[in-house]
């Protein structure tokens, strides 16, 4: 049996569990993966449940996945507090159709109170469909007190 993760690895796994436990994520076929400090990836699938009237993914799916990927990239650097999105800008570059999509998030700057991170959506064909940048602020909410956050 592999040893229990510790340190940063335990924090990453606990954030992944927190993501999976969030009620909103029961609406999406998605999985968070944090591979290192300041990096997060969300694997998800778009199907017609997420389409607008013209047959492509509605912007809510773009925003949710870009915000989540950037957020978790930033929160991977903070082990005690939950971050809050204070601002997010996004740019749509292509429609998302049915199929797998990856949201790649990365931390850009900030390590004290405010963090800046960006994310991009990569469609199954390898093309970028959107990108966004957000600012995230430390809250008073302790990670350890949140249902789903299970640090080793």
From TrEMBL:
Residues 55-129 form the Thioesterase domain. CDD domains: PaaI_thioesterase. Pfam families: 4HBT. Transmembrane segments: none annotated. This is PaaI family thioesterase. It comes from Sphingomonas qomolangmaensis. The lineage of its organism: Bacteria, Pseudomonadati, Pseudomonadota, Alphaproteobacteria, Sphingomonadales.
